[in-house]
Amino acid sequence: MLRRRTVGDVMTEEVVTFRPSTPFQEVAAMLDANDIAAAPVVDDNDTLLGMVSASDVLRHETGMPDPQGQDGDDERAWGKARARTAGALMSSPVFTARADWTIPRAARELRRRHVKQLPVVGDDRLLGIVSRSDLLDAFIRSDVEIRDEVEQDVLGRILGLNQGTVAVEVRDGDVTLRGHVPEPRLIPVVVGLCQGVDGVVTVDAHLTAPG
């Protein structure tokens, strides 16, 4: 079968992190300098403790539990507004992803949780972070990459067809197949496998087989 790319394949491994004791001003400066909306808070063993976000910084800067003045009776929110360290500012527990998740599963989780990114953990340790843009990049592949995977993995490795038996053309993610296969029953198999390749938009098959 085709190997589907996972969160571990597309996640960002070099992640800006904070310790619970990181001062507020350093948190704000690092988020701004790296143009990121949120960053994980970890201990000395890289165990994930929480996430601190730009909205948390805004709560602190406005002196309100919510920049729009909502949640005025929420003591936890007021605590964030008065926070002096990342540990006091962070949100916890955190929704996380696993490195072995498929990309569609991670996309569904981002949508379900209404978040833009998820820290990736293994044995509670931070491994990286995966964002919406990481997942989108997985599907925005060059036509050459798609063609190579169809030719080498689908037609060659999986189906064992001789090179040149089926010609593959890819344009803007649309795959066109021309040629012949040994048996009629293989035609829908070829199409289905090609549709499972990351980045493929449509498959137009012009294939023949012995009667």
Automatic annotation (TrEMBL):
Residues 142-211 form the BON domain. Residues 11-68, 90-146 form the CBS domain. PROSITE patterns: BON, CBS. Keywords: CBS domain. InterPro entries: BON_dom, CBS_dom, CBS_dom_sf, Diverse_CBS-Domain, UCP036990_CBS_BON. Gene3D superfamilies: CBS-domain. It holds the Pfam family BON. It comes from Streptomyces botrytidirepellens. This is CBS domain-containing protein.
